[in-house]
Amino acid sequence: MNIPAEGSNIQIQSYKHNGNIHRIWAETKVLKATNHTIIGGNDRTPVTESDGRTWITREPAICYFHADLWFNIIAMIRDNGVYYYCNLGSPYVFDKGALKYIDYDLDVKVFPDMTFTLLDEDEYEQNRKIMGYPDVIDHILKKNVEKLVRWIRQRKGPFSAEFIDIWYDRYLTYLN
Q: Annotated active-site positions, please?
């Protein structure tokens, strides 16, 4: 697999199952890159939606992507704690300077006290019908929601305070 250089800037491109672009984050600093994992950091990065609307992220974030998992994790570092936004989506590929994945609508929002909420189930069911998500994708996504919930409850990986501290400190070194 093509691997970005640590310290380089990449785009993050989210697609829908039908191949249409969903959302693009203009710039994320690569903090770690292996054959299986990319960890990145960004702050106040421009984001472009599929309809052309743009906005800018409000806080520093550490992004975790894995080539074998059907979810990715964005840890948003705010004054009152770390909030997580977890996208259920395909494992990533890195192609032409961009990390790319398919967004499958379901999201899990995790609060600083590690309570969480599953979001967008209606959107998922609607898009599953419209775009014809195969049953195998439905099964994979449901299993990965279960895995994600286990990670949250166990404070595994990006959900551990140490993980965020280490990678946010690394991100800050690139800013100085």
A: 23
Q: Can you tell me the distance from the alpha carbon of 54 to that of 67, in angstroms, rounded to the nearest whole number? A: 28
Is-above-0.70 flag for pTM? yes
Domain count for the chain: 1
129 lies in a domain?
yes
Task: Write the pLDDT tens digit of every residue in 79-102.
Answer: 999 999 999 999 999 999 999 999
Residues in Cβ contact with 42 at an 8 Å cutoff, skipping those fewer than 6 apart? 25, 27, 28, 29, 57, 60, 61, 63
Residue 107, annotated as binding a ligand: yes
Q: Is 49 annotated as a binding residue?
A: no
- Alpha helix (H) ranges present in the chain? 121-131, 135-154, 161-175
Residue 51, marked binder: no
